[in-house]
Amino acid sequence: MRSHARALPPAINPAPGTPRSDWGTLAKLLPYLWRYRWRVGVALSFLVAAKVANVGVPLLLKQLVDALSFKPGDPAAVLVVPAGLLLAYGGLRLCTSLFTELRELIFAKATEGTARSISLQVFRHLHALSLRFHLERQTGGMTRDIERGTRAVHSLISYSLYSIFPTLIEVGMVLTLLAVKFDAWFAWITIAALVLYIVFTITVTEWRTQFRRQMNELDSAAHSRAIDALINYETVKYFNNEDFEARRYDENLERLRRASLKSQSTLSLLNTGQQTIIAVALVAMLWRATMGVTEGRLTLGDLVMINAFMIQLYIPLSFLGVMYREIKQALTDLDKMFTLLESNREVDDAPGALPLRVSRGTVRFEHVDFAYDPSRPILHDLGFEIPAGKTVAVVGPSGAGKSTLARLLFRFYDVSAGAITIDGQDIRQVTQASLRQAIGIVPQDTVLFNDTVEYNIAYGRPGATRSEVEAAARAAHIHDFIKASSKGYDTMVGERGLKLSGGEKQRVAIARTLLKNPPILIFDEATSALDSSNERAIQAELRSVSQGKTALVIAHRLSTVVDAHEIVVLEAGRIVERGPHAELLARDGRYAEMWRLQQSGQES
Known about the structure:
The protein is about 60% helix and about 10% strand. It is α/β, with parallel strands linked by helices.
């Protein structure tokens, strides 16, 4: 009786959904900062101290100016200069810088630690997502999202904690002083200017955020285009398409240029409006202060103090537009990274999943149906067993679903119906880590890391010694080739292993799997890139290492599977024949026909 698994989930949409609100993004960030709460508290205390010292500077400046009430040329003038006020003025200036640096020093660990935690969590989560997700994403754009998201953490903390929050504290202190020490008009002029400035800044920035977001999307598209073309360098060269790729890249750059110009023109509008508001407010404040001096209500020191307050206040405010825009952009970038973090795990460990226990290593495909796309089924009611310690080969034409078996066994995808079991345990009910630890694969398309030969072989078992790596290389018949190179095992293999030939990459992949030494092996066209002599030598080695292990051999060349305990012939996702090599030949069916075609091709 057939067992049915849950329906295949729909493909993950690679484009992020509707962005969450800014407050929602901040709420996602706060738990990461909460672990550094004591540092935040200390940093805020230094911040307040720095602002108190900063506000004290104009007050001392007023006292200093008012104290200089002497006639020019008076020989006693130098004695009138209050040395204490001068020293206090210099001390306050120093304290402002000192407290600011202490604040940044204390909070740097929180900033860097938060960025590191989020980036690492996203990196781990991306590796936990299904193969479907990665096939539908552009790696260049995704890495750009992570890079911008990491920068966004720094920007948010820098602009909010180091700029906006301190400015608000200073504005509050200055308004209180102006209202208490002078008449309320000074405070009302300042408040009116601030409100108008903030409303104008937020309104215009909200309007132009769409242009900045569009510019970022086009930037990611251009980056992805360039990365894709460079990764496929050889293909570009094979078809002489350098100009074609350059034109495609330039089309992206042109769209980015137009979006950047639109963004810059709206920025100029924003900056001009802000400076106009600031200029009008400064003129109004200084006019009222000047009138106060001429009428005797204010001293010259008061005028200097008010002017100093306004300069201190409006210099940071002049960057409010930039700060608000950067914060909005940082929130957008951070939201994109959080969206990646929240991407659905199509294949996830079941609640309470236990580690796989491999006692014998029997693998069963039980009435398996599967489709990458529900409208195009790949496997139909597939059922066969790989007995413990035996080798079963799966053969068939291209597109029959052979390599899909390896992906399902590794649980890159879940079956649409039926089940796959190892020693009676449904692989959906065990942890993915333990499942993949028990299986080793030599894939058809070997991709290596841009590192040394030793690193790539040792990747099968990180921490393996050089002697263990060399033993695996000898078994894969690649040790002599490695030693013959000038740097030996320290030879760099290049991006995706492009410095090695196809056969050399395949042998590195075989050595890597031999070093892992798992109880279950998968050979997916493992010798397809090798010449005949090397193929025979490695086939002998593979037979040797497969002794006592459960092995699934996926092959196109039938000569490589004649020694298998059973051969399964797939066609259009269905089993059409099965049995040992000699028995299948005797039946004179589909396998025998394929065998004759390949033999006649070899003879030709």
